[in-house]
Design a protein that fits this description.
This protein is α/β, with parallel strands linked by helices. It has 2 domains: 120 residues, Response regulator (Rossmann fold), CATH 3.40.50.2300; 131 residues, Winged helix-like DNA-binding domain superfamily/Winged helix DNA-binding domain (Arc Repressor Mutant, subunit A, Orthogonal Bundle). The chain contains 10 helices and 12 strands. The strands form 3 sheets. A 5-stranded parallel sheet has the order 2-1-3-4-5, with helices on both faces. It has a 4-stranded antiparallel sheet with strand order 6-7-8-9, with helices on one face. It has a 3-stranded antiparallel sheet with strand order 10-12-11. α5 links the parallel β4 and β5. α7 packs across α8 and α7 packs across α9. The longest helix has 18 residues. It starts with 8 loop residues before the first strand and ends with a helix.
């Protein structure tokens, strides 16, 4: 559903005159509040603008592009960030998305597509905004604070990134229900998961590593092979193999062993 006029406040950091000119006309026709900028704006300046979303071309920012993108995404978790640029590589797109950008669009592109992606990000942001009356969610040793976009164990922050927190919150809100990978991706990333995309698994490993580091006596996120993941605090079995850090092979070996065991049992 298209957002109503006046409900989106957007800043565009881009110097591509042709793209900006056409995009500006579309934004004005849609009734969106917008500002076009030719250089970086400090994070506190973006806060003062009360923006819903930021469209940025890293080419405008030069050598500080990655640092700026990471800082903005880290300091303003409620701000939707859409990168629109030309000539990017797969590695660059993956890096930007993992830093916290919500979407990445390659130029040349149609302004209507950019606006549609901004709408998708803003809708997801509004759905994920915590209700003011909702208190923290407590699960075993874990305290999930939606008002702070963070989780704590014994008062100590897990230092979750925005994406890690949204993933944890999505799983916890399912209250023990198994969520398929595609459903998780749709809820957290805001659009359909591409075939072969392993982002959910990568971020699950990162989240598990932080949970295990701060609360080693409990297992919170459980794998359902070939389906997805479930959140439910369960005491760790003494001596059991714990998930390894992000990117390690330990978790994969445990999962493979269990899956092979079930396969052999089915053949018996």
């Amino acid at each position: 559903m298209t957002l109503q006029p006046g409900t989106v406040r957007l800043a565009v950091i881009d110097t591509d005159s042709g793209f900006v000119r056409v995009l500006t006309k579309r934004l004005e026709a849609a009734g969106w509040e917008h500002r076009v900028l030719s250089s970086t704006v400090p994070a506190d300046g973006l806060v003062a603008m009360k923006l819903n979303a930021l469209v940025v071309d890293p080419a405008v920012l030069g050598p500080i592009a990655w640092e700026y993108l990471e800082r903005v995404c880290g300091m303003l978790p409620e701000l939707g960030v859409i990168v629109v640029t030309q000539g990017s590589t797969v590695a660059q797109r993956v890096r930007g998305l993992r830093m916290g950008a919500d979407d990445w669009v390659n130029k040349p592109c149609h302004p209507e597509e950019v606006m549609a992606r901004v709408e998708a990000v803003v809708r997801r942001r509004r759905r994920s905004q915590p209700r003011t009356e909702a208190g923290p969610v407590v699960a075993a040793e874990l305290e999930i604070r939606a008002d702070q976009f963070q989780a704590f164990v014994g008062g100590r922050s897990l230092n979750l990134t925005r994406r890690e927190f949204e993933l944890l919150q999505t799983l916890a809100e399912a209250a023990g229900k198994v969520l398929e990978r595609e459903e998780i991706y749709q809820r957290v990333w805001g659009y359909t998961m591409a075939h072969g995309d392993r982002s959910v698994d990568v971020f699950i490993r990162k989240l598990r590593a932080k949970l295990q580091q701060h609360s080693p006596s409990w297992a919170y996120v459980h794998t359902h092979f070939g389906v997805g993941y479930r959140f439910e605090p369960e005491p760790e079995v003494p001596g059991a193999t714990l998930p390894g850090p992000a990117g390690s092979e330990g978790e994969g070996l445990v999962e493979l062993t269990e899956e092979l065991g079930r396969f052999e049992a089915g053949r018996a």
